[in-house]
Write a structure and sequence with these properties.
The protein is of the alpha+beta class. The chain contains 31 helices and 16 strands.
């Protein structure tokens, strides 16, 4: 056929046959699409055939099949095209039914790029369907068959309406001029078919009126394909909107949404590369998947069956995944031994093995991904959450961007989600419990547990423990048994006391119970640290109580009857302190500086006792002491006032702790010792003294009502809390909003300002 030697048939459709052929001049294989002889006599069809070649040849893009030449020989018209070793989306659906969301999004991204390239040449494909999307062995999708394409805004030269009912856009049924918005509808319908395993409509009819009614029906992809992300459901819904104006208005908009979904759901980060109202209707209705497959536009279709078996001597880890090369027996034995150690719960030994293997450079990228995964996993089991992040983060360097197999997709998501400092939000997790993604669910549960998110971590670990390991990943079954230790520790946490200043005489009992729980814990890391911190807090509270009692014992007993000093009026401007007043002022400032440790526990009652014990004789000194005692007592009330307002559910936003990154969260419950914080994982108890005092001030000003006589006491406690926690500038700012509300406060504040900022 011309300069092409035919060597085999690839497929046959209603209009043409497709052959494998060799260009005898260039010695390259091509796909040769030859129009049936009977149709080659039809001038309209041959014109369409030639136009297809010219239109396709004008698009130079890796996601569109290349056209080399068009010609005629021996009464046949033919097109020579790029020979692609690929599988059509139609075949993939026929073989597997519904296709995974990750795979469909990757195909959608490539096809959208191809359509964008066509649109830039002012072309509309007009026949987007699964049979015209080809997926190569490396996961690249290519768009084929521009046989029905027209110029944007142009008219169809054929009197017939050629289309596939499942995917035809509604406006085409009304005889409107074709636009790229019709291709967007057809692409959405095709993606629906791939995700659900069935077309969006039952549309085997050639009646225009019936089809118009069918197209007006609402789609329900969520019911047909449960488990899809909300963003993907929304994207398909908008692409299939009945009115073109309600669909995405550009291919860039679709690409942007796909990339956002891939990034959020699968950790994939991409780099962007750069008609008339006809009266005669002849529907191209293809009844079966096999018939659709045969019409593929001249591309060599190779049905991808099972993955190839591992090479001789290779070590397989699930689904034929090549992990360790032949001849690398030493590393192979270490790898398997380390994995077995994890299944046995010997995490310290396993950590040593994978720390050593992670330094090897000879294994394949797949081996290195798994090595880093196991290295990070052992560190999570051992409570080294921060160290695990760097292990998981390095996986991305060995995860091929062009691969779309389940293991690589899993590893990309693991690299993104588990390398972040924040816990994994369960809505972003979505690791399946009946596939290789079970390994991701395990790591995510451990990460949240070691980040102190015990409830969300336990939910993920329980889901992991009840999942079904896929064939080839039986080692996951051994690890499932290790979840029992976390479950036991979680139950122990439910009964763990949380000591506070109000515990009183129960402190010793609470400490004893905490020590008993600590001794029985089975896991390492976050939970033992939490219980130990509660034990230490009980010791601090006991120490503070002892300080208070000691201060009271050391307070002079004479005179027996204390006379409250008369308030000292504010010192006139320019008046200097006496030498004795300066001495007592210095004594008080030194004493206040010694109270800085109390801001760590937010317990200020000991400060009051120490102020009582101070030896002061001048009227100014004794008045300052009384004002300070009043202030520290009010600072003790601040947390209770803040808790009361937080319990109204009014705070949602940024939360800052003394250590760690800021968190976007909501406080759902609060008392003087515990704030219950929801980061999106469920409620988590956080000790009040873990929060940054400056954030507590910000939260108070956000939830307290406006300053007034009714809210004055809350703001007064805020002022003195700011002083007690070393935030004098914040205290000044709040105090400036209160003058005139309470005369006692006005006088006390002026005297304390004189203590802090004397006139001389």
């Amino acid at each position: 056929m011309g300069k092409y030697q035919i060597i085999g048939i690839l497929g046959e459709g209603g209009m043409s046959q497709v052959f494998r052929a060799v260009d005898v001049h260039l010695q390259r294989e091509v796909a040769l699409k030859i129009l049936h002889r009977s149709l080659s006599q039809d001038s309209a069809l041959t014109a369409m055939f030639e136009r297809e070649a010219k239109l396709t040849a004008s698009i130079l893009h890796p996601n569109v099949v290349k056209v080399y030449t068009v010609g005629e020989d021996q009464g046949y018209f033919f097109i020579a095209m790029e020979l692609v070793d690929a599988t059509s989306m139609e075949e993939m659906i026929a073989k597997s039914g519904a296709i995974t969301e990750a795979t469909v999004l990757q195909v959608a991204h490539d096809v959208t790029n191809g359509l964008k390239a066509a649109h830039e040449e002012e072309l509309i494909h007009r026949d987007i369907k699964p049979g015209n999307m080809l997926v190569t062995a490396d996961g690249t999708a290519k768009l084929v068959d521009f046989g029905l394409a027209v110029q944007q805004g142009g008219e169809d030269e054929s009197e017939d309406l050629w289309a596939t009912p499942f995917y035809v856009p509604p406006e085409k049924l009304e005889g409107e001029i074709d636009t790229y918005l019709g291709d967007i509808y057809s692409l959405g319908a095709t993606l629906y078919h791939a995700l659900a395993g069935k077309p969006p409509f039952e549309a085997n009819t050639s009646s225009l009126e019936e089809l118009k009614i069918i197209k007006q029906s609402e789609i329900d992809l969520k019911s047909e394909a449960p488990g899809l992300s909300r963003q993907t459901l929304k994207l398909i819904e908008t692409m299939m909107a009945y009115q073109g104006s309600d669909r995405p208005q550009s291919y860039d908009e679709i690409l942007s949404q796909i990339e956002e979904i891939e990034k959020k759901q699968f950790g994939i980060r991409r780099r962007r590369r750069g008609q008339k109202n006809n009266t005669k209707v002849s529907w191209l209705i293809l009844g079966t998947f096999s018939a659709l497959t045969a019409v593929v536009a001249g591309i060599y279709i190779k049905l991808q069956n099972d993955r190839p078996s591992p090479l001789p001597g290779d070590l397989g880890i699930g689904s034929g995944e090549r992990v360790i090369s032949a001849g690398d027996n030493d590393n192979t034995e270490k790898f398997l031994a380390g994995r077995q150690l994890i299944s046995e719960g010997r995490f310290e030994k396993a950590e040593q093995v994978f720390d050593e293997l992670s330094g090897e450079t000879s294994p394949s990228p797949s081996t290195r991904m798994w090595t880093l995964y196991f290295q990070g996993l052992t560190k999570l089991f051992l409570g080294k959450e921060e160290e695990s992040r760097s292990c998981f983060g390095m996986i991305e360097a060995f995860a091929p961007k062009e691969e779309a197999d389940p293991v690589t997709l899993l590893m990309r998501r693991v690299a993104v989600l588990l390398s972040e400092p924040l816990p994994v939000i369960e809505a972003d997790n979505e690791f399946e419990a009946d596939s290789i993604e079970l390994a991701g669910l395990l790591a995510a549960g451990l990460k949240n547990w070691q980040a102190g998110q015990f409830e969300s971590g336990m939910r993920m670990l329980d889901a992991f423990a009840t999942g079904i390991p896929p064939e080839g990943y039986e080692w996951l079954g051994g690890v499932q048994g290790k979840v029992a230790a976390f479950r036991d520790d979680f139950h122990a946490l439910q009964g763990a006391p949380n000591p506070s200043r109000k515990s009183g005489k129960d402190l010793s009992v609470q400490k004893e119970k905490l020590e008993s729980i600590f001794a029985g814990l089975k896991t390492s890391g976050a939970l033992p640290e939490l219980i130990r911190s509660r034990i230490n807090r009980s010791d601090k509270i006991v120490s503070l109580i002892a300080e208070e009692k000691a201060a009271v014992r050391n307070t002079p007993t004479q005179p027996v009857v204390k006379v409250k000093p008369e308030p000292v009026p504010p010192r006139p401007v320019g008046t200097k302190l006496s030498a004795e007043e300066k001495s007592e002022r210095a004594q008080l400032l030194e004493l206040i500086a010694s109270f800085s440790g109390y801001s760590e526990t937010l317990l200020f009652s000991a400060a009051v006792a120490k102020l009582d014990a101070a030896d002061l004789v001048t009227p100014a000194g004794t008045q300052w002491r009384e004002d300070l005692k009043y202030g520290y007592a009010k600072a003790d009330e601040f947390v209770s006032s803040l808790s009361r307002e937080l319990n109204k559910g009014t705070y949602e936003g940024i939360i800052r702790r003394r250590e760690g990154v800021p968190l976007d969260a909501k406080i759902t419950r609060a008392d003087s010792s515990i704030f219950v914080v929801d980061l999106g994982f469920g409620p988590n108890e956080v000790e009040v003294d873990s929060f940054a005092p400056d954030w507590m001030l910000e939260a108070a000003l956000a939830v307290f009502p406006e300053p007034s006589a009714e809210s004055f006491r809350d703001f007064e406690s805020t002022v003195f809390f700011a002083i007690a926690t070393g935030q004098p500038e914040a205290a000044d700012q709040v105090a400036a909003t209160l003058p005139g509300i309470d005369s006692d406060f006005d006088g006390r504040w002026k005297r304390l300002q004189a203590l802090r900022k004397p006139a001389d």
